[in-house]
Prior knowledge:
- By secondary structure, this protein is α+β, with helices and mostly antiparallel strands.
- It is about 30% helix and about 25% strand.
Amino acid sequence: MMTEQELLQKADAFIDANMDGIIKDIKAVVDIPSVNAPAEEGAPYGKEIKRALLEALKIADRMGYKTVNCENYMGYAQLDGEQEKYIGTIAHLDVVPAGNGWHTDPYNMTVKNGYLMGRGVIDNKGPFILTLYMAKFFKELGEKLPYTLRMMCGCDEECGMSDVEYYVHHYEEPVFLFTPDSEFPLCNGEKGHLGGNITSKKFENGAILDFKGGMAKNAVPDEAYAIVKGDIAKFPAADRITLTAVPEGIRIDSTGIGGHASHAENTINAIGVIANYLRDNDLVTEGEKDYLKMVCLLCEDHQGHGLGIECDDGKFPPLSIIGGLMRMKDGVMKQNFDSRYPTNTTPDELVAKMAKLGEQYGATITDVTATKPFYIEADRPEIKACLDSYNDVRGLNGKPFTMGGGTYARHFKNAISFGTEIPAEPLPDFVGKIHTADEGIGIERLKMSLKVYILALHRLMQIEF
């Protein structure tokens, strides 16, 4: 039987030999702008996501796997093992909109100074391709794995995860699964998620004609605009604000600092910049000022102090909340909120507190959705196998963590999220993070991650499930 040292030596050689192919296959899926769009016949999440799914399955077919398209909700590639029981991986092919501020084409992946640049290279197309090559390594060894291996690719992770709900209702669950859609060393718990809208009353004679900000519900917006009645001479200059006279009145554009909802520290919400500007300079009606105060309270503090909903259970990070999308229609403004909450509160409690506060400001809480926190004890052998594999490859002593991000893991009975991000390790100035401009991942990170996954899968295959 091969020793782990021999396995890792073979893995190093395999990774070096296949790196060009990995980069080429990542590009093939990153170059497709697979942003969620209205459903079409045979394409529940829009034609571009379907196109990305078909391209991913085409790559898997070429590599010799059995492939299954799950009614275009998701798909999978399978390497049959000695047992029908299967260990799974799941990544997603849908991406958030590109947004603004890119220095490369987000949908024409490029390699710059050792980094892959493009929307989805980390979140989450690049990691999906890694799972196919993880399987390729074992396929080329020529011996059947003890368990079947199934590499799943989802299509609705960013906008609700209805794809995985479809999957678990139509297919048998894996005995264990990891999703490469988080951070190393590994995450064994995720906060609950609460979403909804802070909705205004209808303003019949308001000053605000339009207000729009954000590209995704789960990202702090870096740009927003409003169109407001008035004389530009009465609109003072301000930081992060650009003023333009338009036929309807004054267009106010703002710039912020974007970021993911689960990592909102050090962000500046562009919607909040406009809301504060309008209130501070008395540019809107009293009713609008009241509603915008509620928006300001949401945007000014990502831990919910402004809304009076802050909490911390000591197991998870403290509650977080951001406002991602502002939209206005027929005189009604809707500001969405995205909260990740720990175990010492409930969605009902949070909504009740926000609703009570909203009574002061002419706002109601609408369109509420919620999911519960999930947590898996870290002493399970499958968790230890993954954690030890990361630590052994890198010579570290990393510990499992819990987080505010929501991944596919929460939808399975026995699952974790496992790489490929390492936020503590600095990136070059030209490389952005997930959900931001210039999303990028280093080739060396890809190599290390694949090596970790190979070792982890080797160890997982030896566990009695």
